[in-house]
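Supplementary Methods S3. Complex input for the pyridoxal-5'-phosphate-bound model.
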Amino acid sequence: MSAQSKKNKDKKYIANTYARYDLMLQKGKGSALTGEGREFIDFGGGIAVNIFGAADNEWIKAVCKQTKKLAHTSNLYYTEPCIELAELLCKKTGLKKVFFSNSGAEANECAIKCARKYSFDKYGDGRYEIITLNNSFHGRTMATLSATGQQHFHNYFFPFLEGFAYAEPEIEDIVNKLSGKTCAIMLELVQGEGGVKVLTKDFVQAVDKLCKDKDILLIIDEVQTGNGRTGAMYAYMQYAIMPDIMTTAKGLGGGLPIGATLFAKKTENVLTSGSHGSTFGANPICAAGALSVMRRIDEKLLDEVCKKGEYIKTALLQLKKVKEITGLGLMLGVSIETDAKEAVRQCMEKGLLLLTAKDKLRLLPALNISYGEIDKGLEILKEVLE
Ligand SMILES: *Cc1c(COP(=O)(O)O)cnc(C)c1O
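Predicted complex, serialized as structure tokens:
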């Protein structure tokens, strides 16, 4: 069957929620992907998921080994991979406990539930509101859509969940939105979908202090920024703050679906037996894959992430049509003088895959992308943006 007839079948049988690019991918190795008989350099990383690229040997070994032993048990029983993974995550963060789920939205759902219960247990009814930022993105479920501070997401699916307030990333506006109902403030430190906007250290530290002073929980959404992406294990470490709850997903599984909600001392015992759960959460195969990639995020790799990010930034800033670059590590947003979607299409024709965020180009390559692969991608960007 030709690629075109397969694509037609996709259109016929799969719900039309995705505006797919006209390309079917078949396989890959590292940051080189193959589809429809052509080679592509991948600067998108499956949206910050494939932190060690495609078909990574160690990840394959870990996943296959676990697949042969036990794929799934439910959370009624102990299994080893998730225990090891939880310990590793706590050791790498200083956070105390982990709840595992299957996606970023679910990790945030859990954080929202935990924040509300923390407040309910301690202060009783009525203290349930969570302040999020305008331009934020926290997921596609009803609660996380409600948390998402972008008006255009708040359509069609009424009624949305109540108990969210939206603020500008300025401490004065956060203070304005505070009330006796506030139980938590939830932030992405670099707003990914919102256009790779980096929050300032002053603002984030002021929010952190406000939260600690008023016993309001600070939830940091590291679904996109986490797991080495920004050049730190988690971006909050670059801000020298400590969240009460931290969520992550995307890169965590190295390509398999897994989400995690991590709790600090204040929140570690809020969720109790029966108050939350997930059938697949930390499925042994996903957890084994996650363990194999998390073990390899070390200082040396993080240093490389920073250097490669700077290297790409320096090269792109020399191109005529590039106006500004934002981001941290290998999470980069590029403002250009022409239409970003059109630029992505032109890059694809020439053999480079990348993403957009709002009106910018967005780069989220594998953390282990080689300089050779980077140069090949930059060569194409040069043709399109010079
Ligand atoms: C992608 C993303 C989510 C949602 O994750 P899913 O796995 O798609 O549910 C939530 N928050 C942030 C910051 C994200 O980038």
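The CA atoms of residues 194 and 293 lie 27 Å apart. The first helix runs from residue 3 to 13.
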